[in-house]
């Protein structure tokens, strides 16, 4: 069945091998992956969901961007999505420059040349990514889109059934929860979570710069003012992600973007020249938290993306973890024994084991760095800056860190 929106009625019962709950890039990628592997797929999206429209003329720059690594690039390329992106709006990251704080700040730099790759990562707008995914889904075989509100998830003899508010249902051998940090699917499975708010918000906006950025992603650990990143966009443009403590975030959101540009100029010095807002009112803020579910699988259910883990954005790898989940789930299911169904408990347990180390390492690393650089004690400040300088002089360890961050 082709990509379509299916009307709901109390008598409707949709049957497919896989039911994917969610409407973000991870959910869409999972739908494409399963469909291209030959499985029938039903995607359940909220009633208000719509296909991301292609903007007429030159659209404004999206303030929500992702630093996609090689794992994401490889998966999207294999699904024929990467080539459908508007590449004029994608920027390669050639260098990552990390800066400490205090009177003698530490410095650490990673570059594509040292990693023997063409780029460390690629900065892609949320809109650009979703438009490419929607275009691919329109031509995908065996994908049905159902709009509705899920009310219950029940196990059946040979699978699971998601019942909707209008009385209709989606029956499948496997349910994939790709419905975000507050996952409904996860809640239906009674999977507990460890939750800790960082008392920070990510303030995001875009700026033009007088000087070329040369593909450098800058990051400043400022201590009490949080973590500031300026990511390269095509041309003389950069995207801001400022993980700011709540009180400072309130101030930043109440200021004009011109005032925010002045703050950034103090950090950037003469690296980028004068910064100017690309769109005067285009600024958003997102609350930050660590969410660690106690499991990422349940009977006939697998979680991917933010439903499976939410980490601090300081490393820019939340979305990459989600793409790695999808790649891992597809690989595990493709390698299952012929007699095992795709929702088989042992198959899903293999997926959970395969993802455990990568997820745990990213959770520990991002949480540890957020705690370390959020401490303002002078001895800690000195130690962490010395650590940055030392790491910068250890090429073997640097290469290992780069390799993991790139997903290679």
UniProtKB/TrEMBL annotation:
Under which pathway is this protein filed? Cofactor biosynthesis; ubiquinone biosynthesis
* FAD-binding domain span: 166-356
List required co-factors: FAD
The alphabetized UniProt keywords are: FAD, Flavoprotein, Monooxygenase, Oxidoreductase
The UniProt entry, under PANTHER family, shows: UBIQUINONE BIOSYNTHESIS MONOOXYGENASE COQ6, MITOCHONDRIAL
Q: Which family does it belong to?
A: Belongs to the UbiH/COQ6 family.
Q: What is this protein called?
A: Oxygenase
Species assigned in the record: Massilia frigida
């Amino acid at each position: 069945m082709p990509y379509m929106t299916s009307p709901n009625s109390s008598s409707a019962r949709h049957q497919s091998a896989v039911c994917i709950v969610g409407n973000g890039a991870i959910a869409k990628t999972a739908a494409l992956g399963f469909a291209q592997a030959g499985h029938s797929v039903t995607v359940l999206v909220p009633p208000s969901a719509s296909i991301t429209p292609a903007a007429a003329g030159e659209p404004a720059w999206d303030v929500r961007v992702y630093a996609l690594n090689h794992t994401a690039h490889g998966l999207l390329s294999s699904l024929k999505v990467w080539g459908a992106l508007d590449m004029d709006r994608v920027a390669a990251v050639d260098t990552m420059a990390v800066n400490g704080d205090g009177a003698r700040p530490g410095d650490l730099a990673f570059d594509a040349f040292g990693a023997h790759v063409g780029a460390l990562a690629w900065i892609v707008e949320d809109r650009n990514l979703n438009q490419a995914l929607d275009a691919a889904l329109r031509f995908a075989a065996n994908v049905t889109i159902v709009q509705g509100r899920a009310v219950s998830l029940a196990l059946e003899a040979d699978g699971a059934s998601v019942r909707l508010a209008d009385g209709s249902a989606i029956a499948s051998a496997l349910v994939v929860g790709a419905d975000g940090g507050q996952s409904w699917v996860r809640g239906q499975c009674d999977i507990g979570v460890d939750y800790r708010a960082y008392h920070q918000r990510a303030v995001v906006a875009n700026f033009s710069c007088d000087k070329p950025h040369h593909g450098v992603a800058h990051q400043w650990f400022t201590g009490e003012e949080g973590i500031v990143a300026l990511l390269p966009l095509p041309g003389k443009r950069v995207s801001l992600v400022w993980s700011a403590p709540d009180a400072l975030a309130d101030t930043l959101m109440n200021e004009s973007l011109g005032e925010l540009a002045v703050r950034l100029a103090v950090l950037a010095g003469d690296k980028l020249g004068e910064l100017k807002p690309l769109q005067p009112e285009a600024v958003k803020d997102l609350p930050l938290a660590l969410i660690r579910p106690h499991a990422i699988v349940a009977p006939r259910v697998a979680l991917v993306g933010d439903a499976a883990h939410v980490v601090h954005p300081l490393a820019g790898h939340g979305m990459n973890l989600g793409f790695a989940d999808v790649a891992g789930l597809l690989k595990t299911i493709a390698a299952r024994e012929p007699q095992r169904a795709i929702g088989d408990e042992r198959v899903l347990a293999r997926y959970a084991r395969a993802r455990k180390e990568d997820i745990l390492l990213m959770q520990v690393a991002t949480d540890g760095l957020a705690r370390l650089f959020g401490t303002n004690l002078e001895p800690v400040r000195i130690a962490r800056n010395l650590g940055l300088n030392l790491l910068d002089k250890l090429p073997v360890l640097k290469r290992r860190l780069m390799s993991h961050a790139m997903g290679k």
